Structure formats: structure tokens, C-alpha cells
Amino acid sequence: MFEKTNGDLTYEAVNGLAYLDAVIKETLRCYPIAGFLDRVCSKSFELPPTLPGAKPHRLEPADFIWFPVFAIQRDPIYFYEPEKFYPDRFIEDPKGTLNSPAYMPFGLGPRMCIGNRFALLETKVPLAHLVSKC
After folding, report:
1. For helices 18-30 and 116-133, what crossing angle results, to 10°?
2. What residues make up the domain containing 80?
3. Residue 50, H or E segment
4. Taken in order 52, 65, 79, 91, is the CA torsion positive or negative?
5. Mean pLDDT, residues 85-111 taken together
6. Phi-psi region at 107: left, alpha or beta (left = phi > 0; alpha = psi -120 to 50)
7. Please, are residues 75 and 87 in contact by the beta-carbon 8 Å criterion?
8. pLDDT tens digit string along 11-59?
9. What's the domain count of the chain?
10. Domain-embedded: residue 20
11. What is the pLDDT of residues 64-83, one digit of tens each?
12. CA pair distance 33, 47, nearest whole angstrom
């Protein structure tokens, strides 16, 4: 696994482990860090109706909005066979799965967790070290 680096665990070697990366991402999809994300509305906004014939929903400033991350990341609309642990979904279609707004283990947009890359690296290093010793 680390032949090119003489057995040393380097940053490049850890980031080159595509399947380990996919396993961690699939784990975060199945078991997100936060069960929900919350936001506060800053300006008036109208959400479209959820059903035909229903009225739209109006959000006003200071309204709280909760996004159920666990439920969204296990919704079959967004992920094929969502209850199945299938890391290959991140290898077969990395851009489609990772860029999906339904994949949000660290949040999305400008309020996304700033420590996400560090947290992923902090998870990969001990796992890569453990796997290299087995």
C-alpha cells in the first residue's frame, strides 16, 4: 500500500487511498455527525407548494428551519438503495454523489463546517496506519 513512500505514511499516500475515502464518505452518509442542521431565515422567502393545489409556505425573518440530514441522506429519491452500505457509489459516480445537495455530512454552503478536511484527514490517518499493519 505504501511501497512508493518506503512504508512511511505521507499526506499524498493517505489521500491516494480512494477506497478508504469512499468508505469514510459512505459511513458519514449512513451515520451523519449531526442528525439535523438548523438555520435562521434572514429575509422573507416563499417556498413552493409541496403538493398540487396546496398553498405556498412563507418564511419570515427570524424563523427557524431544520434540515433532517439523517432522513435526507437515506432517502431513495437521492441515493440508490440508501439503506445499503455501498462505498462504491462514491467511486462509480464521485461528482454526482458528492455534489448532490442531499449529501451534507458537514453541512452545505457558506455555513459548512470549516474543519471538514481536517476531520477527514484525522480519520483517514489512523485507519490507513491500522490497515497498513494488518
Report:
1. 120
2. 3-33+74-133
3. none
4. positive
5. 85
6. left
7. no
8. 888 888 899 999 999 999 999 988 898 889 999 999 999 899 999 999 9
9. 1
10. yes
11. 999 999 999 999 988 889 99
12. 27
Q: Which amino acid is at 43?
A: K
Q: Which of 119, 122, 129, 117 is nearest to 9 (CA)?
A: 129
| Cell matching residue 11 | 499526506
* Strands 45-47 and 57-59, bridge-based pairing: antiparallel
Which DSSP string corresponds to 111-129?
Answer: GS-TTHHHHHHHHHHHHHH
Examine residue 113 and state whether it is found in any structural domain, yes or no.
yes
- Amino acid, single-letter form, for residue 67: F
> What are the start-end ranges of the H helices in the chain?
11-15, 18-30, 69-73, 89-92, 94-98, 116-133
Residue 32 CA to residue 71 CA, distance in Å, equals: 10
C-alpha cell at 85: 452500505
Domain assignment present for 67: no
